[in-house]
Amino acid sequence: MILGKVIGSVWSTRKDENLVGSKFLIVKQLDLDYKEKDNFVVAVDSVGAGEGEIVLVATGSSARQTTITKNKPVDAVVMAIVDKLDITKR
Amino acid sequence: MILGKVIGSVWSTRKDENLVGSKFLIVKQLDLDYKEKDNFVVAVDSVGAGEGEIVLVATGSSARQTTITKNKPVDAVVMAIVDKLDITKR
Amino acid sequence: MILGKVIGSVWSTRKDENLVGSKFLIVKQLDLDYKEKDNFVVAVDSVGAGEGEIVLVATGSSARQTTITKNKPVDAVVMAIVDKLDITKR
Amino acid sequence: MILGKVIGSVWSTRKDENLVGSKFLIVKQLDLDYKEKDNFVVAVDSVGAGEGEIVLVATGSSARQTTITKNKPVDAVVMAIVDKLDITKR
Amino acid sequence: MILGKVIGSVWSTRKDENLVGSKFLIVKQLDLDYKEKDNFVVAVDSVGAGEGEIVLVATGSSARQTTITKNKPVDAVVMAIVDKLDITKR
C-alpha cells in the first residue's frame, strides 16, 4: 500500500453511474518522515478519511475489495487511516 | 485514478473484434495545477468525454468495470469528467 | 494502453505449453510525435501486426481478454493497429 | 516479487473491517547487495516476518492469494522470508 | 513481458505454504542489446530456466496462469526461455 496524506477532493457530476455517491480524495504520497512527494493519486474513500489525515491507499484490483468499491471502475481506495508509524531506530 | 486532460483520439480500423465502436482517447497526465506532464495514456471513453476536458482515468482490471469495457482487452478507461479540484489551502 | 511500434520479435522454443503458437512482438514505446522512447515491452500479437506498424498495447489482466491470450501467462497484448492520431491543434 | 527489508510497522485503528488483525509492515526495497533503496511499500504480513528481516513482497491481485489476505483490500503481502541470495559469480 | 537474464536464485525456508517447492529466480532486466539494467525482479520458474539464460517474465495476475503458480501469492513468473531476438535492421 501507498502511504499518503489527504489534501483535497475531486468534484465530478458526469461519471460512471456506479460511482454516484463515491467520494474521490486527492492523496499526496508521503515518505517515511511524512514529507510530501510530488506524486499523487485520486482514490475513493472507504473509511471516512478527512483532509489532512495520513492514510494507506490500496491500488489495482485490490481497490475493489471494499463494500463501497466492489465491481466499480476505481483503481485506488483509501482503506486505512494511519495512527502512527513505528520504525526501528537505526 | 490518474488526473488527465483529453487532447485527442486514436484512429484504428484493425483491432480486436470486441473493440469495434470503442473510442480511444489520448489523455495527457496533469499535475494539481492542471499543468500537463509528459506522460500520456490511451484510454477508452465511457462517459462521453470531449477534447479539452479534465478527466479521471482508471487503469488495470478496474478499467473493465464499465458497461462499455466489460471483458474487453483495454487497460485504461475514462470513468469521470472533473468539475473542479477542491484542495485545502496550505 | 501504450502507444508503440513493432520493431521485431522474440524467438522461443522452450516456453509454457499454452504459449505454443503465440507470436511475441518487441514493441518500442512511442511519444505523440512517433519518436521512439527507450522503453520496450514484449507483447503477444492478437491482430496480425507486422514490423514497423504503430500499435496499441494493453497490459496486465486486460492482456488476457482476447481469444488468443485467454488464460495464458502473458501480461501484454497488441490489440489494435493505429491508423493515425488525431490531436487537437494547440 | 520485490526484495525488501522490514524496518517497522504502521498502526491503524480506523480501517476496513476486514483488515482487523492484519499487521501492516513497512518494507524498504533492497538492491542485490542488501543496500536499501529510497522506495518502500506497506505490506500485510502472512509469514510472521519480524523487523530487520529480509523478505519477498508480492503485489497486486497476487497479494490476495494467502489465507490472511484473501478478498481483502490489500495490494502487497510479505509471503517469504529470505535465507540468502545465491548469485553466480561474474 | 519483461526481457531478462537469470543471474541467481533466492533461498527461503519460511514462506507461504503453497510456495513449497517453487524456485525463486533473480532476473536482471535487459535492454535489446542484452545489456543488464539496474532493475531486477524475483520470479518463480515455470520452464526450467537455468542461470545465465535469457528469459521472458510475465507479471501481475498473469504470473498465476501457469500450472506451477496457479492460485499462489506470486506476481512474476518466467514463462519462456529466449532463443534469439529478431530485430529489423534500421
Helix content of chain A: under 10%
Low-confidence sequence ranges of chain A: none
| CATH fold label of chain A | OB fold (Dihydrolipoamide Acetyltransferase, E2P)
CATH superfamily of chain A: EutN/Ccml
User: What is the overall shape of chain A?
Assistant: elongated
Main sheet characteristics of chain A:
5 strands, mixed, barrel
Please give the alpha-carbon distance between the first and last residues of chain A: 23 Å
Oligomeric state of shown chains: homopentamer
Order of the strands making up the biggest sheet of chain A:
1-2-3-5-4
Note the run of SSEs of chain A as H and E: EEEEEE
- Tally of helical runs of chain A: 0
Gyration radius of chain A, rounded: 13 Å
Q: How many beta-strand runs of chain A?
A: 6
Number of domains of chain A: 1
Per-chain topology:
Five copies of one chain form a homopentamer.
Chain A: E1 2-11, E2 24-30, E3 36-45, E4 54-59, E5 76-81, E6 84-87
Question: What's a quick, concise take on this entry?
Answer:
The structure is a homopentamer of 90-residue chains. Chain A is mainly β and 90 residues long.
